[in-house]
Write a structure and sequence with these properties.
The chain is mostly helical and 53 residues long. It has one domain. It is built from two helices and no strands. The termini are far apart. The mean pLDDT is 77.
Length: 53
């Protein structure tokens, strides 16, 4: 019977974690600021748009 290589499982888990972190971080890239479908122009915060400030 073949032995399981646990290192590859850990490497896969790390790769999945890094993909999630990168995709979450892309949201904050200033390069992509004008390419979003929805953009808030004017005041800079969501709370101000909702009348909270």
């Amino acid at each position: 019977m073949k032995e399981r290589i646990y290192f590859l499982g850990h490497l896969r888990t790390l790769a999945i974690f890094l993909v999630v972190v990168v995709h979450a971080g892309i949201v904050y890239e200033p390069v992509l600021e004008n390419s979003w479908i929805v953009s808030w122009y004017g005041c800079g915060s969501y709370v101000a748009h909702r009348g909270g400030i």
